[in-house]
Fold Carrier domain-containing protein.
Amino acid sequence: MVASLTRVLEQMAADPSMPVGRLDVLGAAERARVTAQSGTTAREHARRARAGEPTRSPALAPELFAQQAAATPTAVALVDGARTLTYGELVAESAGLARRLVRAGVAPETRVAVVADRSAELVVALLAVSTAGGVYVPVDPGLPEARMRMLLDDVAPPVLVCTRAARDAVPPDFTGRLVVVDDPAGAEVEGPVTDHGHTRPLTADHAAYVIYTSGSTGTPKGAVVPHRGLRNLVADRVERYRIGADSAVLQLVPPSFDVSMADIWPVLCAGGRLVLAPPTKHHASGEDLVRLMRAERVTHVAMTPTVLAQLPPEELPLLRVLIVGGEPLPDELRGQWTAGREVYSEYGVTEATVASTVSHPLGHPLDAPGTPPIGRPIAGTGAYVLDAFLHPVPPGAVGELYLSGVGLARGYLSRPGLTAQRFVACPFAPGQRMYRTGDLARWTDDGELRYAGRADAQVKVRGFRVEPGEIEAALAGHPEVGRAVVVLRQDREGERRLVGYVVPRGSGGVDPELVRAYAAKELPGHMVPAAVLALDALPATHNGKVDITALPAPDFAELSSGRAPQGAAEEILCAMFAEVLGLERVGADANFFTLGGDSITSMQLVSRARRAGAFFGAQDVFEHRSPAALARVVRLGDRTPHGADGGTDEGEVVWTPVMRALGERAAMGPGFTQWVVIGTPPGLDADTLTAGLRALLDAHAMLRARTEADGPEPRLVVGRRGSVDAAELITRIDATGESAQDLDEWADRAAREAVLRLEPRSGVMLQAAWVDAGAGRVGRLALVVHHLAVDGVSWRILVPDLRAACEAVAAGRQPRLDPVGTSFRRWSRLLAQEAAARHRVAELDDWTRVLDTREPPLGTRELDPERDIAEGERHRSWVVPPQQTATLTARTPALFHCGVHEVLLATLAGAVVLGRSGSGGVAVPGRPASHGAGTHQRTGSDGTILLDVEGHGRKPVGDADLLRTVGWFTSVHPIRLDLAAIDVTRALEGGPAAGTLLKAVKEQARAVPGDGLGYGLLRHLNPDTSPVLAALPVPRIGFNYLGRFPAGSREGALAPWQMAGQDAIGGSSDPAMPTLHSLEASAAVRDTLDGPELTITLTWHPAVLDDAAADRLGRRWLDLLAGLAAHTTHPAAGGHTPSDFPLIELAQDEVEQFEAIAAELEGGRTW
């Protein structure tokens, strides 16, 4: 600051006549540094382009989609409710429509209006317009007629595409060519559109789409975005958010909003699944979205904080990437959602292709509360913070944000004057333009941008940029209004509403409700004021401007009076209306939207009403707007969700197959545990933790279980609520002053010590070791639970629940956790019934064939359950190199149409075969042990392997709802793999044999009887089938792919409630537990900030298998993974197998013949 002041004074002294605008606050070095950090990516992109160097893929978005469809035609591309389209089906439908458009005259720069709600047909239309070379212009069919006409007049599209459902929204006097996308009469089924089908080639300079935004003069303006910007957006998003074949992206924002382009194009160009939310007119509630996201296993979503606040983070464990923008992200929401996933704050404007800057993942502790940073410019983009004279401002100073680079729009359609005002010459890059955003921002010292408000009157409403002037013009258009002002008010915390103020024309009066209704016919829903107030005159400041601070707040209470509620339904609904809208009371006939409600508050109403036992949907709120009308359609009931237990969760639990496989008494050992270590928020106290833990014990019955071994058979019994004292389960460890690294070590040690305090016979199934780091610091909490009560999936329920309970207590509220659908006790009884079901018993012969061949011995002898116990086991892990991991977890599964599970299983099986053949050495000849009297099994060759494969076990049985059930659900089933016809040695070299190995194992793994659950049921719960399976050989090798776990930076600070440690889940075996397999193989992927990290682990007993042999097998496994990764990069790698075509019977050679024919027919470039 002193240096800047000195510099300004020196310039003034040197030239007193110098205009203030030419005074430079920054020195030369500081100016160079600021401009360098502002535009590095844009300048580098421009330099490389001038030099002819590759920037990113030259293919445009429609080409990338066509290439992906050709590579994975059978993969699911689009999910729209009950309708699913593969890439092959989607490209066929869009290509058929594209040919119709080309014949209608569509070519590059031809604008095509698309009138459709969110649907598969909308996506087909978007792809078809782009494939034909045209310019996509989305138009919301729900727009008022006047606004629809205004947009179509401005666009002047020669062709309009609509759906049959939206046909009536098209003005009847539209004079262009009308194409109905879902009209069966116009459908075509020919091949893809090629270069020869276009009148001229599509280039990066051609327009891709036009998106309309609010205009300050009362007229919306259309930003014209070229394909160059869309291509850059796709490339950056796919790379930054790691969108690939295993990704499922939810398309949530309205199609006429530019963010929809960022939802749709990247995932379809990367081979993932696009999941469409219900159409806008259906007004999906938060619960509706959660159900959809869970059912479709959504991994990525972009939404505003307002919508995000309606969703429970603990219900979405598979969500990996969350992108927020459009509004400030409150600290509380940030804290709730950053645990266990990556959350990014994104900034962008329509005029610069959706996204221009992105923050780092917001997973650090909230030691700097407030609006999170909007980050740094994305690739190909420049961001400048300038003063009124276009001089860069120093870090910390607020200036106006300007954007430059490849993402810039051409300008506004048919608005050259406005384009010239907003798109100006860039003084830092000769020949380039920059866009004046009107947003204020500042650079931080570490080179990130922070949003600081607006330089003009524009506001944001539910993520939409809105010009109050456009709303004012609509209000003033009413014949009785003389003047109008619109303000965005926040009269309650977290609630922002547009309010209009009107002054009557002349001496007459004006009805504000009629004025609001008039404006609603001109404006889209998000721009209609929540209330309009009539004033005799607008208050003014001393200089004659409208005094915004003196404008009165709307009194919705006046509108909420009316008759008192009658009956339980009306009483609940009136109370919920009042709670959501912030009113003291609401009459039974009051209109929800007249009282200030909107689509977001309708979601809140649905959610809160359900907690009170009243069930209805958000669409019902729009159709039945008063408590009285809603009461006629609402369903009253208890707070138990569909599929929930009809009985108690207390009492005896039936031993499940996995428990019986280990042995009931062995499973009861106190040292058989799992644990997690999580960060604790600063300020946590013992009372809060105790109350939170008590809520957890009450909600999840298995945490109250105990074992009983006094009778002839051991028993597992769940106690009543309150039977376990939460305070006695907590051990506090004072670690004040310890470093973060020391805290992690203390927590690990505390977890292992807590294992010793578990006592299942006394009902002590849980211990909480709290490592208290002192005031103002994030501590650690080691939660240790006996394995009988928990599994890996359970932690995704327990940790968010504990957090929610503790935060409620800290805020002075009673913790209320969501109910559990089906208790583990009932689930165990359902399994016992399922074991006797006819369709399960029918699997017996198939399981017998799987096991009816004895394996060559692995190691020196068979396991002896009396001698070979967990206490003597050895473990070793290997980390797969990062580049190979990136290939094996994304590209390999995509090319071979399989999962990471098959990749790992195939290479493990190959390593075992190599060992038997002497190429790796794991088997030591010995006498095979007897499997009991009367056994007559064949002996397998060196090319077959029998393994036990472990899964999560949460399979659908009956009407069970296991989304929130905690317990040990794991299931295990055998699988026999025959690799005799495969040259596994060649697979090591990265040749075609590696692909052949993966395809063979993929097919055999998918051929297990039923869903795999039946083996455990028949082996352990059915007395008739159990002896048959017990007499057969058992696998000597076990395999378990633990899945993918989110992980933060290794060096980054731990956030409250975030999981800590190298392993997402720790665990221990009771020392006396028998070793079940001669060799246990497991693997897990950690999604770190640097990319995925794959770790493989082997566990063995040295009395059976020596350390050197285990080490050789592990290295062979690693080598085969490397070979498969190398093979994946070959152009000929990949392909389908018969199981990819379940509706027809094909052999592998027939599949390959069809693929060869398809490749031959696809010659030439497609769009």
Q: What stands out?
A: The first helix runs from residue 2 to 14.
